[in-house]
């Protein structure tokens, strides 16, 4: 898009122009090439999406646009706003005066012309000031509005961002994540900037919240409140919803550029194709997805030719000699690949999963399981107050897990998924209810009633393993892979012989797809990528022949291209060993991809359960419906529109007496408030609500109060 | 199936292999390597410290170098002294100004004979009587009776002649004359000759009784008396002859079966009873003993050459009896007990070098309470244990090789080297700092003569006189010393009286800075390591407990730690130190006891943060026991901080010792680097005079602490991701 573009664009309409931008970071031991020769243009009113995995240089570009790069950055190239080059490596200010002028200019540009929603900004509010005051700060610095005017503007902004004006007097800790993110957006809108840069604006938020934020941003854009957008994300769903053009980044360079349709429907780049392929997708049902093999190249030590070459299915000898230029495809579509014009698809090699390996025998069954955490405010009140406040993390939950089955558990964060997992694994003791562990069809024990040194309990322990959410936190940084993986063998006294242990660990590492095995044995976690770490987690969980694994959000911290292969590996092990897995995630698509049955949890209570297909294709509970509707679809035609749900998940301390979903249900009636809803079931598919489907339909049509 | 031992072996191999791998990484880190080497150097120095500073923990400078004897006189004589033969006339070695003379053999213009020296300020001397050649031996003995105190008898031998003279000294000491008593020529050459008499004050008879003197006039009526013995050699052999001293009348003559040069020794009850006294003659491998009547008591030949024979003086007074019959005999490196009754010998000790001199106390209560030998540059004090074995009970390095030991009294000895003219006064052979002073004449001298009675004199308006006096004859000089030491101003100096070179000089307290520095290594390392590691261990256990568990006990512990932490430490230290006493062990104990709260608080935070890490939960899922979780997961993650804290603690303990020294809570006799520095506290004089003394402790302290910081860096690299030591 370099030369050819000149005539396409009318310069007058050109808002932001990034020319030949390269950014290196000087680090101990070399140069990190974070951004390499990037050219991007944004026209007035246009939005640009930057898509890429973490480390591909997305945030660095955003910082360069705001000229906020850290000291160790070396910039070449230029960035201009309305033809005014305010970042220019050719023409740096030579004296103090020049610097001062540039500084002044940048201060004007930042926030007034270009504002930014920083990655994770919602967590950087100052906890001692109200939200209103912190948003007002923008006006106090950049304008000379008086106090009343500022307050008025703040209220307007909050409304724009979808918040009630009352929020202005709240302190950050009083707001949920979604509300804080909205406040950040309000702040970015404050001075009517021409461009809003949003760096991973929904990362870390729950699906429903994410969908609502996307909807809000979309609305703001449509209404012209946001003129131009640069949306940065690793999630194709988010980017394609908000951008007109997408730049796909890999190893600091643009791999492909084009309209959303160009990229999503008609990609001409192997990396993009592979990346898109790694997202499980609700509409694709359970079609096999595959991750991209290998890992991102080391930005301090990039290979010579195409940076994607060692992971590319189309690689040819030419690819490793020199890096390809961006090739023009058609319209605004460019791709950096030697074979951009005749790209082939890389269809999955493995067939879709069948699920004939599920046995009908139960392995684990929980009955009316409840867990309350007592909140100790301080010693005195813990001792004397009668009504101790407690967190009702899990309330009256029943479920069963059969042998060889993957059971999915979905729900927003705070719904009690992890607590349930920890109850199942024995890390927590239930307040009431039972956990049954079946040795065979008729022979079971109540594990919650066993002493920890009882032989049945030890047997149960040996057969239950866990894969944790955070691969960075779940491996001891001071322990080698061998020591980590061998831990269950040591703890369960499988063998005392290190040689035998080594063999078992090697087998397990191989099973977790880490090759060559020998090379991994003595590595420390820092020598592993996130995906490799999580595989070590698998290796640890499968090193002894356990029957049951709880995987708690195992992919949420992984890069997109690594998730699919992780899930496939997990499934493979399940098939080979016939083990049962409880797969917990807020990512409904990935749960659908893996699970045979799905349970939906809300605020400590199970609201729906059934076969995966039934749950996804015909959800019955209002909450499930909202959840499924909110999953962003990369298809630009997707529109979450209005999701039938109110607000955000509450806390588990002041829970509604009747239906747990009462506060957020759009169908709620009086009865729901105080009466616990019954289970309505349709064979294996059940849900918990006072109303049948047709009744709900009816209620909806009447409108909700 | 593998056997258990095979499994065990494999496991050990595996573990060792792991340790080796980790050490490699550690060793690859420059910091780790440097730290390790520094630490090893420190430990080596600490281990070698006793050797490096000659065994005396506090004394690089020998204590004797702090004092020197006061020279009373140093006079020129008008004759040349035959230095090995000087004697004193006075009772019990008594010496009084103007009253007594000293006698010595000498030569003046081809005139050989016995000279008298007044030991007073004039130091004048005169020839008493001539002999026909160099004097081979002579003795001066004064009557015991005070009424006859001006009368001295002198016996001398030379060539073929024996002489007995009666010497009259005037009471003013201004005149002296010698009257001949007897003179004979013998048939042969006199090898050595001696007069038997009692009161062998210094192993030699020095006076005769009134009765003996009386016997000089009534020869035949003398029932007992003084006998003179001479070993005479002629072409038929070597003979021992016995004479009455008063007229040199020969009583008997026996042929000797000696192989080397002979020495004569006497034992017995005043030679009053005829049978028990003995005359012992040694020579080469042989020893012969005769009684007064000329009967051979024993005649032995050993497999070795007899060196010196030392007989406790008291045995010479009385009849020999069990418990009072041991003499000490040296031969080369070995020391034997000689049974004086039957001549048998028992081996008791081998020294590392030739035994050059034996010193023995009087033995008035049986086995002598003080027995020392000199060998090489050491003396060894020997004592009889309860079981009857003779063992070394004290030893010390000497600034010079000693070839002459004179016993004074109460365990005090004068050690000298008559060839080099060095002397050292040994106060207590069993003490750590055994010497009082040290002197170096740098000329050969005769056997020092000790006068027991103090000789009062004044030098520079200071009166001396509470100690005994020593006379030394050397060449043409007579030198008198007071036993009293005079403090030597050792100021900051780089060498001592005894000629010792001090590499780092001395400080104002005369301590050898180098010795002090080196001697500080062991206690500093001990206190540092012990207190540092104890503190860390206590803190680690408590911190894990408090951090890991929540509950009453844990809250209680936390409160306890906090209260100890908040109590003003100094008073607490003072109380504890005074209750427990200021020993090194107690110090370590106190430091650890009071040091742990701070470290604990630093660690609790980490314990709590590690506790929230998922891998701890994961370990629980893996069924790992709590204690094992602590070991596997907590300790390694605290590792770096632990080592840092240990380093800080060790440094802190080392520093704390010094402040305790200032406060007087620790005995300053424990040398430490801190102590070396604390002496400069507020002492501007010292800091200007010998600032160099601050450098070694500062360097050592800094390096010591740096070593630990380096090591912790190295350990960091073993386990810490970001430093990437594994590439
Ligand atoms: N201040 C910095 N110093 C050194 N390297 C940096 C710095 N900031 C980012 N990087 C590196 O630059 C590359 C791109 O980072 P970033 O722009 O944050 O990627 P993204 O936003 O796509 O996740 C990464 O390799 C990252 O580690
Ligand atoms: S240039 Fe080669 S390696 Fe790179 S994407 Fe195209 S085909 Fe793959
Ligand atoms: S019971 Fe009532 S509140 Fe609960 S989901 Fe059904 S309609 Fe909504
Ligand atoms: Mg980023």
The total count of strands of chain A amounts to 24
Rg measurement of chain A, Å: 27 Å
Rg of chain B: 36 Å
How can the largest sheet of chain B be summarized?
A: 4 strands, antiparallel
Low-confidence spans of chain A: pLDDT under 50, at least 5 residues? 1-10
On the 0 to 100 scale, the average pLDDT of chain B is 75
Strand order of the largest sheet of chain A: 6-7-8-3-9-10-12-11
How much helix, percentage-wise, in residues of chain B?
Answer: 25-40%
Number of separate helices of chain B: 12
Tell me the β content of chain A: 15-25%
Shape of chain A: globular
Overview of this structure, please?
The complex is a heterodimer of chains A (705) and B (727). Chain A is α/β, with parallel strands linked by helices. In chain A, strand 7, helix 7 and strand 8 form a beta-alpha-beta unit. Chain A is globular, with a radius of gyration of 27 Å. In chain A, 49% of the residues are buried. With 727 residues, chain B is α+β, with helices and mostly antiparallel strands. A four-stranded antiparallel sheet of chain B has the order 1-34-33-30, with no helix packed on it. A four-stranded antiparallel sheet of chain B has the order 2-3-4-5, with no helix packed on it. In chain B, helix 4 (513-548) runs parallel beside helix 7. At the A-B interface, helix 13, strand 18, helix 15 and helix 16 of A face helix 1, helix 8 and helix 9 of B. Residues 54, 58-59, 119, 199-200 of chain A line the site of magnesium ion.
């Amino acid at each position: 898009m370099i030369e050819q573009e000149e005539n396409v664009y009318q310069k007058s309409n050109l808002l932001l122009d990034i020319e030949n931008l390269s950014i290196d970071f000087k680090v101990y031991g070399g140069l990190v090439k974070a951004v390499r020769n990037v050219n991007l243009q944004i026209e007035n009113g246009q939005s640009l999406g930057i898509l890429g995995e973490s480390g591909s240089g997305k945030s660095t570009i955003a910082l360069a646009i705001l000229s906020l790069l850290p000291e160790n950055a070396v910039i070449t190239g230029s960035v201009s706003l309305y033809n005014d080059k305010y970042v220019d490596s050719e023409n740096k200010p030579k004296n103090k005066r020049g610097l001062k002028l540039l500084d002044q200019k940048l201060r004007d540009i930042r926030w007034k012309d270009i504002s930014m929603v920083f990655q994770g900004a919602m967590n950087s509010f100052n906890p001692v000031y109200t939200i209103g005051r912190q948003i007002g700060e923008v006006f106090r610095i950049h304008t000379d509005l008086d106090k009343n005017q500022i307050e008025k503007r703040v209220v307007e902004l909050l409304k724009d961002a979808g918040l009630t004006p009352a929020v202005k007097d709240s302190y950050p800790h009083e707001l949920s994540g979604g509300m804080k993110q909205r406040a950040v957006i309000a702040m970015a809108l404050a001075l009517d900037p021409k461009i809003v840069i949003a760096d991973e604006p929904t990362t870390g938020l729950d699906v429903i919240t994410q969908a609502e934020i996307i909807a809000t941003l979309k609305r703001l854009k449509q209404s012209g409140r946001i003129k131009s957008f640069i949306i940065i994300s690793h999630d194709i769903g988010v980017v394609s919803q908000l951008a007109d053009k997408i730049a796909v980044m890999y190893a600091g360079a643009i791999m492909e550029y084009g309209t959303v349709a160009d990229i999503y429907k008609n990609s001409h780049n192997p990396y993009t194709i592979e990346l898109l392929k790694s997202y499980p997708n609700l509409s694709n049902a359970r079609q096999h997805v595959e991750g991209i093999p290998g890992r991102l190249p080391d930005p301090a030590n990039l290979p010579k030719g195409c940076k994607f070459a060692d992971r590319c299915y189309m690689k040819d000898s030419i690819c490793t000699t020199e890096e390809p230029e961006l090739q023009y495809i058609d319209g605004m579509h460019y791709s950096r690949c030697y074979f951009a014009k005749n790209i082939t698809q890389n269809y999955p090699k493995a067939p879709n999963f069948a699920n004939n390996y599920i046995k009908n025998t139960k392995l684990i069954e929980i009955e009316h399981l409840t867990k309350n955490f007592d909140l100790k405010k301080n010693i005195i009140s813990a001792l004397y107050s009668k009504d101790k406040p407690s967190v009702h993390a899990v309330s009256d939950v029943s479920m069963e897990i059969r042998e060889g089955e993957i059971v999915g558990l979905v729900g927003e964060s705070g719904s009690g998924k992890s607590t349930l997992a920890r109850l199942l694994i024995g890390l927590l003791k239930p307040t009431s209810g039972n956990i049954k562990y079946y040795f065979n069809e008729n022979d079971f024990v109540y594990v919650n009633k066993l002493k920890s040194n009882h032989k049945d309990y030890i047997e149960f322990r040996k057969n239950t393993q866990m894969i944790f959410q955070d691969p960075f936190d779940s491996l001891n940084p001071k322990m080698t892979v061998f020591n980590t993986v061998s831990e269950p063998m040591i703890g369960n006294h499988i063998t005392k012989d290190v040689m035998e242990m080594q063999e078992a660990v090697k087998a397990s590492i191989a099973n977790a797809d880490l090759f060559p095995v020998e090379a991994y044995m003595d590595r420390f976690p820092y020598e592993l990528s996130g995906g490799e770490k999580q595989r070590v987690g698998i290796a640890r969980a499968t090193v002894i022949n356990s029957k049951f694994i709880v995987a708690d959000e195992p992919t949420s911290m992984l890069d997109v291209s690594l998730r699919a292969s992780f899930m496939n590996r997990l499934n493979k092990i399940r098939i080979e060993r016939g083990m049962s897995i409880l797969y917990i995630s807020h990512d409904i698509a990935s749960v659908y991809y893996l699970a045979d049955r799905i349970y939906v949890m809300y605020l400590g209570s199970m609201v729906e359960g059934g076969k995966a297909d039934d749950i996804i294709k015909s959800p019955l509970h209002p909450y499930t419906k909202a959840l499924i509707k909110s999953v962003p679809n990369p298809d630009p035609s997707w529109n979450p529109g209005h999701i039938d749900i109110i607000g955000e998940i509450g806390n588990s301390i002041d829970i509604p007496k009747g239906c747990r979903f009462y506060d957020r249900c759009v169908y709620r009636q009086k009865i729901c408030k105080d009466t616990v809803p019954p289970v309505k079931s349709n064979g294996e598919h059940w849900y918990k609500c006072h109303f049948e489907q047709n009744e709900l339909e009816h209620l909806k049509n009447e409108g909700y109060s | 199936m593998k056997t258990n031992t095979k499994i065990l072996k494999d496991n050990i191999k595996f573990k060792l292999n792991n340790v080796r791998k980790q050490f490699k990484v550690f060793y690859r880190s420059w910091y780790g390597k440097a730290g390790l080497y520094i630490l090893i150097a420190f430990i080596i120095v600490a281990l070698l410290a006793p050797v490096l500073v000659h065994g005396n923990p506090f004394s690089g400078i020998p204590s004797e170098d702090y004092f020197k004897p006061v020279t009373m006189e140093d006079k020129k004589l008008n004759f040349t002294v035959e230095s090995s033969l000087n004697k004193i006339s006075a009772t019990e070695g008594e010496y009084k100004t103007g009253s007594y003379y000293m006698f010595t053999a000498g030569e003046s213009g081809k005139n050989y004979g016995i000279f008298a020296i007044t030991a007073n300020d004039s130091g004048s001397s005169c020839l008493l009587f001539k002999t026909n050649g160099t004097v081979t031996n002579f003795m001066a003995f004064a009557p015991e009776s005070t009424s006859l105190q001006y009368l001295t008898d002198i016996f001398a031998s030379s060539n073929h002649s024996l002489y007995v003279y009666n010497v009259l000294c005037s009471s003013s000491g201004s005149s002296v004359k010698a009257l001949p008593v007897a003179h004979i020529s013998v048939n042969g050459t006199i090898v050595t000759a001696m007069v038997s008499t009692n009161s062998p004050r210094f192993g030699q008879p020095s006076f005769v009784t009134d009765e003996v003197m009386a016997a000089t006039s009534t020869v035949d009526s003398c029932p007992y008396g003084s006998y003179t013995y001479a070993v005479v050699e002629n072409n038929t052999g070597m003979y021992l002859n016995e004479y009455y001293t008063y007229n040199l009348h020969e009583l008997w003559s026996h042929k000797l079966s000696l192989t080397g040069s002979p020495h004569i020794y006497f034992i017995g009850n005043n030679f009053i009873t005829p049978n028990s006294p003995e005359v012992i003659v040694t020579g080469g491998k042989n020893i012969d003993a005769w009684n007064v009547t000329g009967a051979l008591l024993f005649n032995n030949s050993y497999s070795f050459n007899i060196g010196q024979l030392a007989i406790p003086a008291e045995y010479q007074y009385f009849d020999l009896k069990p418990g009072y019959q041991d003499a000490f005999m040296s031969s080369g490196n070995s020391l034997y007990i000689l049974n004086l009754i039957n001549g048998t010998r028992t081996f008791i000790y081998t020294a590392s070098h030739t035994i050059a001199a034996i010193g023995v106390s009087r033995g008035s209560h049986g086995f002598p309470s003080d027995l020392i030998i000199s060998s090489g540059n050491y003396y060894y004090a020997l004592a009889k244990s309860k079981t009857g074995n003779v063992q070394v009970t004290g030893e010390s390095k000497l600034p010079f090789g000693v070839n002459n030991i004179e016993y004074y009294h109460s365990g005090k000895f004068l050690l000298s080297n008559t060839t080099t003219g060095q002397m050292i006064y040994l106060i207590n052979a069993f003490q750590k700092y055994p010497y009082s002073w040290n002197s170096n004449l740098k000329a050969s001298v005769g056997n020092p003569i000790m006068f027991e009675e103090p000789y009062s004199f004044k030098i520079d308006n200071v009166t001396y006189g509470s100690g005994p006096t020593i006379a030394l004859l050397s060449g043409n000089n007579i030198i008198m010393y007071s036993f009293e030491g005079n403090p030597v101003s050792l100021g900051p100096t780089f060498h001592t009286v005894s000629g010792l070179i001090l590499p780092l000089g001395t400080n104002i307290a005369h301590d050898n800075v180098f010795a002090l520095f080196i001697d500080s290594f062991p206690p500093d390392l001990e206190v540092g390591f012990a207190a540092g590691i104890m503190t860390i261990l206590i803190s680690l256990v408590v911190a894990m407990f408090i951090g890991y568990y929540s509950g009453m006990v844990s809250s209680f512990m936390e409160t306890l730690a906090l209260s100890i932490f908040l109590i003003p430490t100094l008073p607490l230290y003072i109380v504890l130190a005074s209750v427990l006493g200021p020993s090194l062990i107690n110090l370590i104990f106190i430091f650890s006891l009071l040091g742990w709260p701070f470290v604990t608080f630093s660690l609790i935070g980490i314990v709590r943060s590690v506790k929230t890490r998922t891998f701890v939960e994961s370990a629980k899922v893996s069924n790992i026991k709590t204690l094992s979780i602590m070991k596997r997961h907590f300790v390694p993650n605290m590792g770096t901080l632990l080592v840092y804290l240990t380093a800080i603690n060790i440094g802190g303990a080392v520093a704390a010792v010094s402040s305790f020294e200032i406060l007087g809570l620790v005995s300053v006799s424990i040398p430490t680097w801190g102590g070396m520095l604390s002496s400069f506290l507020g002492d501007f004089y010292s800091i200007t005079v010998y600032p160099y003394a601050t450098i070694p402790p500062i360097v050592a302290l800094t390096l010591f602490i740096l070593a630990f910081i380096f090591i912790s860096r190295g350990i960091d690299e073993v386990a810490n991701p970001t430093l990437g030591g594994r590439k």
